[in-house]
Write a structure and sequence with these properties.
By secondary structure, this protein is mainly beta. Helix content is 14%, strand content 44%. The protein has five helices and 15 strands. The strands form two sheets. Strands 3, 4, 5, 6, 7, 8, 9, 10, 11, 12, 13, 14 and 15 form a 13-stranded mixed β-sheet that branches. A two-stranded antiparallel sheet has the order 1-2. The radius of gyration is 17 Å and the shape is globular. This is Phosphodiesterase.
C-alpha cells in the first residue's frame, strides 16, 4: 500500500532494482561563533521534487536533521548519520546574494560574495560532466588537496554510494542565525568538520552548486520525530 519509494525503479510491474538518483542544487555550509555548524541543501531538482533540508551539528557534537517531509527525512537519514530528526517546514528564499532560511526553530540569513578563482573554474564545468560519477571520482584527490575535509565520492549509509559534481562556488561573507531562541553568533569556519557523512563541507563558509548522484543500497528505517 502507498506505492514504492521514489528511488525504486520498476519495469512491467516488476522491480528491477534501485537506480542512481540525481539531486541538482546548492549546498551551503557555515560555522558560527557558538560552535554550531550548519549545512543547507537547497535542491531545485530531485526524485522528491524541489525541496530544502538543514543539517546542524552543535558544539557538543549532537547532529540534527531538519527535513520537510517524512519521505525526504527517511531518505536523508538512511544516507547520513544523525542523533535526531525533525520534520518541519523548510523555506528558502534568495535575493541579490542574500539567502533567508526558515526551518522550524532555525531562522538564518547569510550573504554570498564574489567568486574566487576556483569558483570561476567550476563555472566552466558542463552540466553533463558534473553528472558523471567518473568525473567526480577523478576529482576526489584534487578536492582533498584544495579543500581539506571535502570529498567528491564515498560510501554513505545503507550501503549507498555518492558522487558530488561541483559547478560553482561562492564564499559566504556574513551570517546571522537563531536556533531555539538562541543567537548562534557570527560567522566562523566549519571547525571541527561536520560528521554527517564521509566528508565535510569546505572549512571556509561557502555555497557550492552541485549535482549529487546517489547509488541506493539498503538500510533500516530511522526514528522520525514530528517535533518542531
Amino acid at each position: 500500500m502507498g506505492g514504492d519509494p521514489p528511488w525504486v525503479s520498476r519495469e512491467r510491474g516488476k522491480a528491477t532494482g534501485p537506480a542512481r538518483l540525481r539531486f541538482d542544487g546548492w549546498i551551503a555550509g557555515t560555522g558560527t561563533s557558538s560552535g554550531t555548524r550548519i549545512v543547507l541543501g537547497h535542491w531545485a531538482r530531485s526524485p522528491f521534487g524541489p525541496f530544502s533540508d538543514v543539517m546542524l551539528e552543535r558544539a557538543d557534537g549532537e547532529r540534527l536533521l531538519l527535513a520537510p517531509t517524512p519521505e525526504t527525512a527517511e531518505f536523508i537519514a538512511l544516507t547520513y548519520a544523525f542523533d535526531a530528526v525533525r520534520i518541519v517546514p523548510v523555506r528558502v528564499s534568495v535575493e541579490a546574494g542574500t539567502w533567508a532560511v526558515r526551518a522550524g526553530a532555525l531562522d538564518m540569513r547569510f550573504t554570498t560574495g564574489r567568486r574566487g578563482p576556483l569558483g570561476l573554474l567550476l563555472c566552466a564545468v558542463p552540466g553533463a560532466l558534473a553528472r558523471c560519477p567518473a568525473w567526480s571520482a577523478l576529482l576526489d584527490v584534487p578536492a582533498r588537496l584544495l579543500t581539506a575535509d571535502v570529498r567528491t565520492r564515498g560510501s554513505a549509509g545503507g550501503g549507498r554510494r555518492e558522487w558530488y559534481g561541483a559547478r560553482d562556488l561562492r564564499p559566504i561573507v556574513a551570517v546571522s542565525a537563531v536556533f531555539e531562541d538562541d543567537d548562534l553568533g557570527v560567522m566562523a569556519p566549519v571547525e571541527p568538520p561536520v560528521r554527517f557523512g564521509f566528508g565535510s563541507v569546505p572549512r571556509r563558509p561557502s555555497v557550492t552548486r552541485v549535482t549529487t548522484t546517489v547509488a541506493p543500497g539498503r538500510g533500516r528505517t530511522p526514528f522520525i520525530s514530528s517535533r518542531a
